[in-house]
Amino acid sequence: MLIMISTRIAILISGRGSNMTALADAVESNRIPNAEVSIVISDKADAAGLKLAHARGIETLVCERKGRKREEHEAGIIAKLQEREIGLVCLAGYMRLLSPCFIQAFTGRILNIHPSLLPSFPGLDAQRQALDHGVKFSGCTVHFVDDTLDGGPIIAQRVVPVFEDDTEQTLANRILAEEHDVYAEAVALVVSGDYEIVGRQVKQRAKAIK
């Protein structure tokens, strides 16, 4: 009998944790098969997402920087992840850039979601950038994390229209609704292993016909 081993997922947050809860719910409902959310880590003790994770019975941990250098701060997080044999790290509103040491420790196993259609509008204030440029469509992108700013290989994207009367908040709200769905879709693909990275392209492997 084939025994499937669950992928242990860690989610890093800094705030409300809406994408974190969406991922946890997707795991619970089996939209992300063969996976478990093992821990939620925040760099802020007052992050609202910590209470939401705790309410779902997920282990939580606060790792504040408190004046420490980035590498020193991340070394503690890396140790906690390795202790728990984490197979996949999902950034969900984690507002710190990861150091090369962190990325090297989990190469090809860190995902992020960004509120724009990358490579357009990386970094902060993506919705403001979209409005300032007058684009007619925006959206969100799930990508692998590498040592570039929001520049890793793209796994999945969703498109939303930009309306003339949009504000940053109304556009952000419309994008967020898509983020919750597409992040789960992308994580499920990565957990399944049914993909390959060719150059900068993430391609789903064709399933064999039985």
How would you sum up this structure in a few lines?
With 210 residues, the chain is α/β, with parallel strands linked by helices. The protein has two domains: 1-107, Formyl transferase, N-terminal domain (Rossmann fold), CATH 3.40.50.170; 113-210, Formyl transferase, N-terminal domain (Rossmann fold). It has helices at residues 18-28, 48-55, 70-83, 100-105, 126-133, 168-192, and strands spanning 7-13, 35-42, 59-62, 88-91, 110-114, 137-144, 154-161, 195-198, 201-204.
Integer average pLDDT: 95
CATH superfamily of the largest domain: Formyl transferase, N-terminal domain
**Gyration radius, rounded:** 17 Å
Number of strands: 9
User: Helix count, per DSSP?
Assistant: 6
The low-pLDDT segments are none
Helix content: 25-40%
- The name of the CATH architecture of the largest domain is 3-Layer(aba) Sandwich
- The proportion of strand residues reads 15-25%
Structural class by SSE content: alpha/beta
Distance between the termini: 19 Å
Estimate nothing, just give the exact number of structural domains: 2
So what's the oligomer here? Answer: single chain
Shape: globular
Strands of the largest sheet, in order across it?
A: 3-2-1-4-5-6-7
Q: The CATH topology of the largest domain, please?
A: Rossmann fold
Helix-strand string: EHEHEHEHEHEEHEE
Largest sheet entry: 7 strands, mixed
CATH class division of the largest domain: Alpha Beta
Explain what the structure shows.
With 210 residues, the protein is an alpha/beta fold. The chain folds into two domains: 107 residues, Rossmann fold (3-Layer(aba) Sandwich); 98 residues, Rossmann fold (3-Layer(aba) Sandwich). The protein is built from six helices and nine strands; from the N terminus they run E-H-E-H-E-H-E-H-E-H-E-E-H-E-E. It has a seven-stranded mixed sheet. A two-stranded antiparallel sheet has the order 8-9. Strand 2, helix 2 and strand 3 form a beta-alpha-beta unit. The protein is globular. It starts with 6 loop residues before the first strand and ends in a 6-residue tail after the last strand.
